[in-house]
Design goal:
- By secondary structure, the chain is an alpha+beta fold.
- The chain has a domain of 334 residues.
- Helices cover 42% and strands 10% of the residues.
- A hairpin with a 2-residue loop joins strand 4 and strand 5.
- It is extended and about 110 Å long.
- The protein starts with a helix and ends in an 18-residue tail after the last helix.
- 20% of the residues are buried.
Length: 516
Amino acid sequence: MGLLDVFRRSPPAPDPPPASADGPAEALGRPRRGMLRMFTAAKLDRLTASWTATPQPTDGLIRRHQRVLVARSREQAANNDYMKAFLRMCGANIVGPNGIILQAQSRDPNGALDVVANDALESAWWEWGKPANASVTGQESWRAIQRMAIITAAQDGEFFARIVRGADAGPWRFAIQLIDPVRCPIDHDVERLDNGNFVRAGIEMNRYGRPVAYHFTTTDEREEQYRYGGRAFVRVPAGEVLHGFVPWLSGQKRGLPWACTALDRLHHIEGWEKAAVINARVSAAKMGFFEWADEHGPSPEDSPEPITIDAEPGKFHELPPGVKFSPFLPQYPQGEFPGFLKAMLRGVSAGMGVSYNALAQDLEGVSFSSIRSGTLEEREHWKELQQWLIESLVQPVFDAWLEVALLAGRVKTASGGTLKAERLEKYRSVEWQPRRWAWVDPRADVEAAVASKNNLLVPPSTLIREQGRDPSTVYREIAADIEAMKAAGIPPEMIALSMGQALVQPQAPNNPEDAP
């Protein structure tokens, strides 16, 4: 080969012949040209060089990022108004002012509701839910425990609630202890224990990944820094611990903050707003500089007094010869501030799963139809989280409480009787009524609900539950009201009118002579 042949460009290789689905290209594992252009998000080029191309295992993903996300989520909750508003919305919409209410549904063998037993269960559950009984500290009611669990889950991604039985649990010998998730270290892993189990992210599991116990650095409130004897752990059986989190990935063992995708925007919004406020303060101060003309001003060896001006309305100052004043007038922020802030908060609200108008308290330019559509969609999200709270916390606590309360004889009827522990399975039949919201358009929504009921599209009980009430309780209240109105001498037609029935007007006779 000569010297010129080294630098001579070789002719391009001919394109391979097209291959069918059964051709040699697929047999060798080479994709067809049409397949290369299918997914633009899978391109590997200079524009996507920093975009990850390798999926990370769930455990490694949580272990690497969970601690930092929790720390930053807590910081934003302490300093960012929008994060604070999000946590407040979670507590108000998922738990509400009354918490998730018990509706006992135990029935007799004939299928009728056992009203006496149901009233006794609801009364005992309400009594236990008082602050002196529900919490090991004697300070939080059952409703407050639910709210704190939701706030912790939204902020940290998970909550830990321990069921405490015995003398330390208060008057009912049954109480709840909320444990800071930080006490269960995310980096505590043991590949194999002596009993054959393994520990992943502070949770001891069997070979199938079922939690067997939880390893906490301490469960003693006297340990301020959550440490007892270095890295010694307190092993608590899984039957005593309720660990709740909303899973995002298959095989996920620990939770992530609900606002994890919005934290970056929130952090930059906070810094941007602070810089804009400081700049606005500087601009409002009307500052400036004094400049000396050539051959004027003090010499470098002198130590002159600085020139100052006291700004007063209608007062002008005469400057020394050779001095001129150059104002410093920063103009930012101007008209772009509201629009950019709104765009950023829309992304934040989308990541949090709430409406922008509710998060930012901004109703400017909102029509009734648009706010109604956004509100109804957001409420479906809250309903989903309400059901998650019932499954993760409320129902397990009730099941454990019911056993203790029946065995201790604490569930009493109005006549002084006691519900029997051998009927435990009968008394487990309950329904839970989360908080509900007022109709967005009361007149239109009520008319639609009445039309649906009259056309047999929904039963009345469904409409009552949508208002946050127990249908059986409402029916008994209505029956009691009717009996009270009859006892007061109210005519039956007026009672029917109060129940929504229209009065039937008597028709005039066709023949006047037949008139009475």
